[in-house]
Amino acid sequence: VRVAPADLGADGSSRRVFLLTYRDISQTRRIDRMRSDFVANASHELRTPLASLRGFIETLEGPARNDPKAQEKFFGIMHEQVTRMSRLVDDLLSLSRLELKSHIAPEDTVDLIPLLGHVRDSLVPLARELDVTISLDVPEAPVFVQGDRDELIEVFENLIENACKYGQEGKKVDVRLTGGEGKQTEVMVTDYGPGIPAEHVPRITERFYRVNVEASRSKKGTGLGLAIVKHILTRHRARLLIHSEVGKGTVFTVRF
Ligand code: ADP
């Protein structure tokens, strides 16, 4: 609250008027807080692999100097850490690029049928590794949406990859597209894994939010995937709906 005394003065009176200006800064504070949490989280995520790399370098320069077996093992782990850091930096860059253009709607028109086919094909090797089968169910006629091809690929790659990774024990992932002829255009990605406890569902699209940090790390997650999905969908005026039942599985629906 700002109090600004001002003299009226016009009629020669000596009355003073006080102007009170109220500004609700709770939203600004919340955004500042989120921003600094984000920087702290990102720094922490990068510092962990860096500390481990430093440890390995010191060991390779010292105790493991003449131990080829240990060297091979340590180089393998260092390679994994560097890959993890690169993935994180790529995701951070994606997020900041998306933030810059969040208010600009995409201009191109994309047919979702070949796009989803492309995403499925690119994820077959991972699915095979995890012993998961991805099924794709699409209508006959093309389903066009206004969108950016690369960004939509990123959305469906993230959702289908998560379904395979976190729903691995369900052994299958169903991807279903509906739309065309006045129907609502939707893509549903269903897994039959452990599901997400209800209290976590509203928060899993937040940056770095994970239901289980260790499980996410072991599955090569950065904790940014769904935040990127949400940003892209906002720009596409599309919504992400999450329906999950513990012990049964999860459905992520993208509604255009
Ligand atoms: P990550 O890089 O950790 O996978 P995401 O932003 O993609 O990050 O997902 C956030 C968290 O949401 C994951 O760490 C996981 O705990 C949870 N999650 C996402 N998809 C699923 C799913 N299909 N089933 C269960 N949990 C999921």
Automatic annotation (TrEMBL):
Signal peptide: none annotated. It is found in: Cell membrane. It catalyses: ATP + protein L-histidine = ADP + protein N-phospho-L-histidine. Its EC number is 2.7.13.3. Keywords: ATP-binding, Cell membrane, Kinase, Membrane, Nucleotide-binding, Phosphoprotein, Transferase, Transmembrane, Transmembrane helix, Transport, Two-component regulatory system. Residues 41-256 form the Histidine kinase domain. It comes from the Bacteria. Its main location: membrane. GO terms for molecular function: kinase activity. This is histidine kinase. It comes from Sinorhizobium numidicum. The lineage of its organism: Bacteria, Pseudomonadati, Pseudomonadota, Alphaproteobacteria, Hyphomicrobiales. The chain holds residues 165 to 420 of 420 of the full protein.
